[in-house]
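user: Please supply your own:

assistant:
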Amino acid sequence: MNDATTPERLAADSTGPDVPPAPAVLRVRGLTKRFGDMTAVDRLDLDVRPGECFGLLGPNGAGKSTTLKLVLGLATPDAGRIELLGHPVPAQARQARMRAGVVPQHDALDPDFTAAENLLVFGRYFGLPERTLRSRVEPLLEWAALSAKRNAKISELSGGMKRRLTLARALINDPEVLFLDEPTTGLDPQARHLIWERLRQLIARGKTIVLTTHFMDEAERLCDRLMIVDHGRAVTQGAPGELTAREIEPHVLEVHGDDARAWHDQAALRVCERLEWVGETAFGYCRDPRAAIETLAAYPRLRYLHRPANLEDVFLKLTGRDLRD
């Protein structure tokens, strides 16, 4: 496989200051999808720029997966406009998908084929010349750390191996944009970190990625920009650090123990800008934590953690802490 077709392919030559920016890889305006009385996607607008990792975050049922199906032409919107890689969707969805890669929530590998055969068979759907296709298989297996498993059947692979093979399969056509729907759900920490490393390689080489995830640390590690959606609507969007600075107080105290309720009711209300009570833990959000920390001395049975605010705090503030099934 030559440099132009490896998963680490470099981005196109940089444009000079007088060259207008490249058009959006994905542009969505007023996207709406209803299922009976339920509105799964509600007048959503978004743009994904070339070479960025764009995250779509939200609770269960927020409309993330439905949005991906719509922009790929796998479902028909009730209203709105979609343009993917210059193609109107769903009218030219097939042409757009030929230039895209997709990693679905659940692996759909063929159990009758080996790891290498899964790549070969999938690549033929794109009409790739056999010589080109075969030249890509081994480098992709090596990139996915699966060279030793090239002849293994799918039943012989661990969950992490299957996920890496699904990612490699999505790259067989050297896509211009990669859609990842919760790529590390259900994986152990070692498998997650390896997949993050491989995704960072793609991002560093200029691939455009659209990512849905429930893991806030995943979004903070990988995403240049992200959008939080809830009930099908955009709640906020921006770079992870920008959202944390804009949407949440900078310091968090997590306080628990026998006197946590007393601290919450008697002291914290005076020294914290915002408070939440979750289970047996009081969360105090502060701009200056010193006064709040000083009050804890009067409650010796308390235990506490002082930490900087993060994207998870933003997410929970904007979407709530109630369980979503």
Notes: The two ends are 45 Å apart (CA to CA).
